[in-house]
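User: Just a sanity check before I run the rest of the batch. Below are the structure tokens for the first item. I only need the designed sequence back.
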């Protein structure tokens, strides 16, 4: 996917595209000295990272407040913050337990003046109320649902980017959780899945 194809899919403005390019530059520079993403994935940034993240917006078009658990390199959180910039009440919380990743996230937030708050700490310990809680490549679903539970108890919907083992992970999670969830095919990779969690309760 090219930048132009991404722009066509998302209707991103010239300003938003410029900010995405700046983010890519900063990510490429930082990744040379700190392992944020696999270096082989950077040439496919627009599909594998940007579009993979941006597709979530179409699943929750009214959502303005998002929490990205284990935000890492900023996927999906920084992409969402860039595309939501300028919308009333938009805010993305970027939560990560590793301080050096938080420093990277904060540098991008500051440089691009994004509607985002970086939080250094454990995801499940944050008292944040959002419309959507999301994550990508953080933990198997049984563990990830534990991180997300406090947000869902406060009214959030769960949207989680998963790989081709999503169905297996969901079955295994059902041993621990009473969960109402749907799986949809990722628009960035037909092998991937998006897990939409509507309700969640720990068994026992």
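Assistant: Here's the designed sequence for the first item:
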């Amino acid at each position: 996917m090219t930048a132009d194809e991404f722009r066509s899919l998302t209707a991103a403005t010239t300003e938003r595209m410029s900010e995405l390019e700046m983010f890519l530059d900063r990510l490429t520079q930082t990744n040379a000295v700190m392992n944020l993403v696999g270096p082989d994935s950077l040439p496919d940034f627009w599909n594998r990272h940007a579009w993979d993240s941006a597709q979530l917006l179409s699943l929750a078009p009214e959502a303005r407040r998002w929490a990205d658990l284990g935000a890492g390199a900023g996927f999906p959180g920084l992409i969402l913050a860039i595309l939501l910039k300028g919308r009333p009440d938009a805010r993305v919380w970027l939560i990560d337990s590793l301080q050096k990743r938080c420093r990277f996230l904060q540098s991008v937030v500051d440089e691009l003046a994004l509607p985002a708050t970086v939080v250094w700490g454990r995801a499940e310990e944050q008292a944040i109320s959002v419309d959507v809680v999301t994550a990508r490549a953080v933990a198997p679903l049984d563990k990830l649902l534990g991180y997300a539970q406090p947000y869902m108890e406060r009214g959030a919907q769960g949207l989680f980017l998963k790989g081709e083992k999503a169905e297996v992970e969901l079955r295994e999670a059902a041993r621990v959780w009473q969960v109402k969830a749907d799986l949809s095919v990722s628009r960035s990779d037909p092998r991937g899945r998006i897990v939409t969690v509507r309700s969640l309760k720990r068994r026992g």
